Amino acid sequence: MLTDAPLDTKDTPPVKVHHLNCGTMRPPGAPLVCHVLLIETPGSLVLVDSGYGLDDIADPKRRVGPARHFVRPVFDAEETAARQVEKLGFRREDVRHIVLTHFDADHIGGLSDFPWAEVHLTADEALGAVHAPSWRERIRYQSPQWEHRPKLVEHRPDGDQWRGFAAARELDAIAPGIVLLALPGHTRGHAAVAVDAGHRWLLHAGDSFYHHGTLDGHSRVPGSLRGMEALIAYDGKKVRANHDLLADLYRRSDPDLLIVNAHDPALLEKARATA
Ligand SMILES: [Zn+2]
Question: How far, in Å, CA of 68 to CA of 103, rounded?
Answer without folding.
Answer: 16
